[in-house]
Amino acid sequence: MKLLLENWKTYINESEDYRGQHGAPDKDSGSPLWNVEGAYPKDFYSSQGFNYYRPYEDYDMESYSIIKACYGRRDKLVKIYRAVPKDISQINVGDWVTISRQYAVDHGKSALNGKYKILSKTVPARDLFTSGDSFHEWGYDPQPYTNRSEREPWEKWPGKKSP
Hints:
Blueprint: H1 2-15, E1 31-32, H2 49-53, H3 60-70, E2 77-84, E3 96-97, H4 101-111, E4 117-124, E5 128-130, E6 138-140, H5 153-156
Antiparallel strand pairs: 1-5, 2-4, 3-6, 5-6
């Protein structure tokens, strides 16, 4: 494990690439924060959804509550966080982000060996996408605003009408 971590540190130093080894979900590969039913089953939003799908971290309820509050609200503003090396100054399109500040702190301590800072940004729920691996991990892929009158019925009432 130590060798793997040393190799990862070398990779970061040599390439200046802090994004990680796999790409974050986007509009083509993930489900949006405002309707995660493509990444999770329909019972995700049920009274038992938290118990069925939580990853068992102290801050799970914080993230789950944000996800539920965004259901059907594509334009709801959400604060996102990202642990980055100290010389990075912005969150970029395609970055992995989180809706839990504590998750970002934990990630910075482990993946960046404690040499990090936390960036934050407020974005609409329509800009965040999940592959369903974790409540806490999201891809940042900004989407244009769509007038409500131009949206498909299933986009106006997720869970009530299917595409």
